[in-house]
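Format notes (please read before filing issues)

Several people have asked whether sequences and structure tokens are stored in separate files. They are not. Every record keeps both together, in the order shown below: the sequence lines, then the token lines. Line labels are part of the format and must not be stripped during preprocessing.
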Amino acid sequence: MSQTPRHPHDTLDEDLMQAMTTANRPDLLRELVEMARKVFGFYTRSADCLITYPWAANLLERLPKRSRVLEVGAGVSPLPLFLAHKGLIVDCVDNSPIVRTLPATEGWDEWGFFDYGQLHNNLTAFHCAITGFKSLSSSYDAIYSIGSFVTMTADVRNEAFRLCRCWLRSEGLFIITLAIVPGTDHIWNLSRGIQVESPDRHGTIEAVLHQIRTVGFRIDREYITRSIPGARADVLFVECRPQSPARECTLR
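Then the structure lines:
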């Protein structure tokens, strides 16, 4: 009997095995890969996601059941479904003009808007920009984003950070990853191959961390992982909590 052909955007077995040898939670990486392949037919071949997805899953799975979570720039990812199966309530926001409808085809990758609500009752998807999102919850227990903030201009990114601070409860968790131009401190400046804005305007790691602090977050941990095998970019990981006392927020 012939085997089902591998999806062209599925991570290669050799890359997965290499990532498993260095992963802090190989069990978690395996679970995410199996879930993505079962639902979408592939786990994205973007090598950084062998690190970023498990990192976020490890932090977020610790939340109590029924916690409310918001993902900024959800794309096509196993993370929302993983969290839903852990008993979390997840709102997924993505403004991609590409709309994905199951069954997945060879043209699918991790980009695009997908209606996660069809997969689990704990999931709701919103097809809009994060700056145009009208939160259904007065506060979230956690907000996260894997790579999406680099696709925003500096001004939009700052407003998105401000809104996330407004939506997050006083002891909530805010975690993000951002792609970094290899060997530099410059934020990745391409979105599907198109320059977002001038490099000087798009900013540096310190500029982004300053934005995060200015809107009212306390950065508990930030670090860079460089020279990821097979990845085009380095990755900045940031874990935050709201400052105490919380600043007054105005939702526009």
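For reference, the curators noted about this record: Helices lie at 13-22, 26-40, 49-60, 79-85, 154-167, 199-202, 205-214. DSSP finds seven helices and eleven strands in the chain.
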